[in-house]
UniProtKB/TrEMBL annotation:
Protein name: Uncharacterized protein
Parts of the chain that traverse the membrane: 12-31, 37-57, 69-89, 101-124
Keywords noted in UniProt: Membrane, Transmembrane, Transmembrane helix
Domain of life of the source: Bacteria
Protein's organism: Thalassobacillus hwangdonensis
Length: 133
């Protein structure tokens, strides 16, 4: 898997969704989706884009299991958090409150693991992280 391409393309999808939600809120004059909109842009677009650039700039070994686990937790965590947040706050299906809460918390927990893995990776693969020149 090309980590940079995967994360960059996924971040582009989040950017489109976040921009669409933002323009919908502005046009409708309602801000019910502001928390979901903000998290889609910050967690989905900005974080995944930053991770894509990390893998592009620093040559982390392709066979790194830590990096592979990081990419998967970044993807599933951002998806779980943002979708879970939408389910929890918007409640598109009545009677699913417990499921929505678990989905929301589960996604956030996976995303937290992603950021812990990223911090660990900054030290484990520290020899690959240096200025060019």
């Amino acid at each position: 898997m090309d980590r940079t391409r995967f994360l960059l393309r996924t971040s582009a999808i989040y950017a489109l969704i976040g921009a669409f939600i933002g323009s919908h809120m502005a046009g409708a004059g309602g801000y019910e989706f502001r928390a979901v909109h903000a998290h889609i842009l910050v967690v989905g677009w900005l974080s995944l884009f930053a991770f894509a650039m990390y893998y592009r700039v620093f040559r982390i070994p392709k066979d790194s299991k830590l990096a592979t686990f990081h990419v998967y937790t970044a993807f599933f965590g951002s998806l779980g958090l943002t979708a879970g947040m939408w389910l929890y706050y918007v409640k598109p299906i009545e009677g699913m409150d417990t499921f929505n809460l678990i989905f929301f918390i589960g996604g956030g927990s996976i995303l937290m693991i992603c950021f812990v893995l990223f911090a660990i990776m900054a030290f484990v693969h520290g020899k690959y992280i240096q200025e060019q020149g």
